[in-house]
Amino acid sequence: MPENDPNDPFAELYRRLPDPRAGATDGTSRGEASPGSPVSAPPSRRAAREARRAQTGPTAAATPDSRRGTGADAEAPADPVPAVRPEPTRTPASEEAPRPATSHDREPVLVGAGAAAAAGSGAGRAPASGSLEDLFSGRASTDEVRGATPPPRRRRRTGVWIALAIVLVIIGGLVGGGFALWNTYGERVQAFFGTGEPLDYAEGMATGEARVTIVSGDTGESVSPKLFEAGVTKESNSLYQYMVDNSVAFTFQPGVYRLQQQMTSAAVLDALRDPENRLDNSVQLREGLTLNQSLDVIAEQLSMPREELDAAVADPSQYGVPAATLEGWIFPATYDFDEGVSATDVIGRMVQRTIQSLDQAGVPEGDRERILIVASIIEREARNPDDFYKVSRVIENRLQPSNQETFGKLEMDSTVQYGADELGSGSVSTSTEARNSDNPWNTYMYPGLPIGPIANPGDLAIDAAMKPADGPWLYFVTVNLDTGETVFTSTYSEHEQAVAQWREWCTDNPDSGC
Q1: How high is the pLDDT of residue 142?
Q2: Domain-embedded: residue 241
Q3: DSSP code of 426?
Q4: How many Cα atoms within 13 Å fall on the side-chain side of residue 262?
């Protein structure tokens, strides 16, 4: 039976297929042979089988006109094809016995890979890195045979992000811990190494004028804040720390001293030693002093007998004051007097300064005494400037008739302390004895305002008495005596919570004036 049946359509198709080697060498177009070159017929399946059987025995001889097993021809066998394959010998069709062709004898036509390989082997293009024989033998991959570069693998970066997050957390912890340590020990570290902010102004910065009052018993610790408030020193502890660091022993003499602003601590001590800087005829009164306390300061700073001052305040009417005493009418300020000034002239000037402040605040003449009463309570109760106007509102709200029926009384500790002579006790709380003391200033016992002022109010307190803030507050309590933080509330339950907060602070600060 002939291997290549002339009537077999597949045989004709095999004859038409191009030899891949021809296309790779002469660069002809796909499926066409070079002119004049012989075209070999593909080997039959029987020849292929005989060739495979020959691999187990002696090497078969190859004929000159056989085709090499590359390209599409190498893809046809189902079994792997060795790298070097014996080429079968063609047998003329006239010498073979005829045999009917069946589907099993037909070799399938695989033109996809072969055609692509033939087309891709033109001039100027790099050949594929492998062949079909390499693919079926396991020596190459499909991508290598086709000449394609495998796509790069996408690396998983989950581990990288986790590591980065851990590093950020560690850095954040170190930074946060560093801030906490610096806030706690920064000043000590700076003090140890001497790298902190200097407590003194630099030499040569002194300018202007400032006045500071020193009273009996003052020390470096008590004078230092006065200098800072007057703008003389850079910090509230500048002078005191300078004296401690340099072991300076100094006795402060009472009086009013003329200094400069932005001085060094050493220059301050030199100025206080100089008698020329002491103003013998000057008086400085602070806010919140009672009449008796004010007279003590005046007598000391002016070297004036106290008896003369007591006589000068005995009759308020000589100064145009419609009150039983001059309590609240001695205005807190700094005064300069000529030598030989009388006690009456001193008191008269201070009363006139109070009237000036009342007029500036727009107080009607008939309301002067009442406003001074309210302003004196504000001066003693409020801690921060912003709280002055809120305390004024609480007083006005509690004085309303509807609220008086609910609360009954004003209940201000400062008035109770004044009536019981406890304003100088150093405590903001009233004792049981003071609350039970029967006097017209006991606002726990009697309704309404007390009978008169309890201290000397300044300009701010007088203005606040005339212009209370808007708000529903009925209670207030200072929960931190160091900072002056005050809580204002409108219900008793809220007030009790604030009182508990104040008591807790007092427990933690037993020596802070509770």
Answers
A1: 56
A2: yes
A3: S
A4: 8
